[in-house]
Design a protein that fits this description.
This protein is mostly helical. It contains 9 helices and no strands.
């Protein structure tokens, strides 16, 4: 019989019991995913590397306090997202204010109510509809989004966490996640409208 692969929680229990050599295995399971999340959040490879390093430093320091009430991956994403958000706030990077962002969203919604034909993909994961060029434009638009909308969009549509998991990671209600995700998708729909036909098909 093949060797049984320990679960994340089993690894954590063994590490906390003194088998610190297993830290490398635990980190290797999530290193790429945390880096990808960090890169989408902070927008540069250098900053993403720093967020990756800081995330695992924070995880190692707090590992003995992990109680398993949520999955280890959800807890790790929470640490990573908070680390990335903290870095963004310290940098004071220019992003759209929430008022400016919401004005843009409401303008798109008003245009739709007025009969303007717009690609209706605000209820679909945006990344499924984009080619490479449009993805570059989307990445730039994501960097300009207010932090909390960016975090919701990246976790839900890029990292493919469930709505409930995103709510757990960010400390929001499921309803708040759904609302902010919808607004983020509407905003991106407007920013990327040139890449879509009226039927919402990528060009």
């Amino acid at each position: 019989m093949g060797k049984t692969v320990p679960t994340d929680n089993q690894l954590v229990e063994r590490i906390n019991a003194g088998e610190t050599g297993l830290l490398e295995e635990l980190i290797s399971r999530y290193e790429d995913r945390v880096y990808n999340l960090a890169y989408r959040m902070v927008g540069s490879r250098e900053d993403a590397e720093d967020v990756l390093q800081d995330t695992f430093i924070n995880v190692i320091r707090a590992l003995d306090r992990f109680q398993g009430r949520s999955s280890f991956s959800t807890w790790l994403y929470r640490v990573a997202a908070n680390t990335a958000l903290t870095r963004l706030r310290k940098q004071g990077r220019k992003v759209k204010s929430e008022d400016e962002f919401l004005d843009n969203v409401y303008a798109v919604q008003q245009a739709a109510r007025s009969g303007e034909r717009l690609s209706d993909w605000s209820n679909s994961p945006v990344r499924e509809l984009l080619n490479d060029e449009a993805m570059q434009t989307m990445n730039q638009a994501i960097e300009e989004m207010p932090e909390i909308y960016r975090a919701v969009f990246v976790l839900r549509d890029i990292e493919e966490l469930s709505t409930a998991e995103v709510a757990d990671v960010l400390g929001l209600s499921v309803a708040a996640v759904k609302s902010r995700l919808h607004r983020a998708r509407v905003y991106l729909r407007n920013e990327l409208s040139g890449y879509f036909s009226e039927e919402g098909v990528g060009q």
